[in-house]
């Protein structure tokens, strides 16, 4: 519940910050063009009071469509995209998949969950971290893998920034997983060279996987 609340709070803060920033930019652009608030609001199809609240960052209900219209009227283009940020919300299936991997580990290995990356301000986190004598492996669990290129890119960046020796990509034994692995076989093998069965045997013996691996459970 705490993790869920943190994610919601982070999203709320981010959204309010964007609304404040865009509202201020609309106001500055409108003033620069000499457009009255009444005229601008009428063109967009909203009330003067509504536009005034948007510009003063008092309209946390405003839609992206309305903001895009306002930006266009004052000569701005509103762009938006999503990118990897903080740890997402996970459900019970995700926790069960991680628990299956943990049960396979040798008792000498240390298992930590939701481990933040070490760089200040980086909101990303490993689903789990396996630590042995002089080595660390990040664990990322994917229940429904679809885009192999995006997944590999994300995990390689996390490995680079996470001070780990490799990544264990954990996936369930499902039809979706099998289809995904066939479709992106070459890409996955080149980035996860250790066969999953070998990686599991090494972890069960308390040893390093000796390279990134895809583990299917």
Can you put this structure into words, describing what you see?
The chain is of the alpha/beta class and 217 residues long. The chain folds into 2 domains: 65 residues, Orthogonal Bundle (434 Repressor (Amino-terminal Domain)); 125 residues, Trna Endonuclease, Chain: A, domain 1 (3-Layer(aba) Sandwich), CATH 3.40.1350. It is 51% helix and 15% strand. A 5-stranded mixed β-sheet has the order 1-2-3-4-5, sandwiched between helices. The two termini are 26 Å apart.
Task: Give a quick precis of the structure.
By secondary structure, the protein is an alpha/beta fold.
Give the distance, in angstroms, between the N- and C-terminal Cα atoms: 26 Å
Q: Could you give the order of the helices and strands?
A: HHHHHEEEHEHHHE
CATH architecture of the largest domain: 3-Layer(aba) Sandwich
The number of distinct structural domains comes to: 2
| Computed Rg | 23 Å
In total, the number of strands is 5
Strand content: 5-15%
Q: Helix tally?
A: 9
Q: Describe the sheet with the most strands.
A: 5 strands, mixed
CATH topology name of the largest domain, in short, is Trna Endonuclease, Chain: A, domain 1
Task: Specify the helix fraction band.
Answer: 40-55%
Poorly predicted sequence stretches spanning 5 or more consecutive residues: none
User: What sort of overall outline do the alpha carbons produce when their principal axes are compared?
Assistant: elongated
Which structural class do you get from the secondary structure elements?
A: alpha/beta
Query: Quick check: average pLDDT?
Result: 90
Highest CATH level, the class of the largest domain: Alpha Beta
Major β-sheet strand ordering: 1-2-3-4-5
């Amino acid at each position: 519940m705490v993790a869920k609340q943190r994610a919601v709070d982070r999203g709320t803060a981010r959204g309010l910050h964007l609304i404040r920033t865009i509202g201020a930019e609309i106001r500055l652009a409108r003033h620069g063009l000499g457009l009255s608030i009444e005229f601008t609001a009428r063109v967009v199809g909203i009330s003067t009071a509504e536009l005034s609240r948007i510009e003063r960052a008092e309209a946390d209900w405003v839609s992206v469509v309305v903001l895009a219209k306002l930006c266009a009227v004052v000569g701005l283009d509103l762009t938006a995209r999503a990118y990897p940020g903080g740890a997402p919300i996970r459900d019970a299936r995700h926790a069960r998949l991680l628990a299956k991997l943990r049960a396979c580990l040798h008792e000498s290995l240390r298992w930590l969950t939701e481990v933040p990356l070490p760089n200040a301000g980086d909101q990303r986190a490993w689903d789990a971290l396996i630590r042995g004598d002089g080595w660390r492996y990040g664990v990322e669990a994917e229940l429904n893998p679809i885009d192999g290129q995006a997944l590999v890119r994300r995990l390689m960046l996390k490995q680079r920034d996470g001070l780990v020796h490799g990544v264990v990509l954990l996936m369930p034994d499902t039809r979706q997983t099998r289809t995904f692995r066939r479709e992106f076989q070459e890409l996955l093998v080149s980035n996860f060279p250790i066969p999953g069965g070998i990686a599991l045997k090494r972890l069960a013996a308390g040893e390093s996987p000796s390279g990134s691996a895809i583990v299917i459970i």
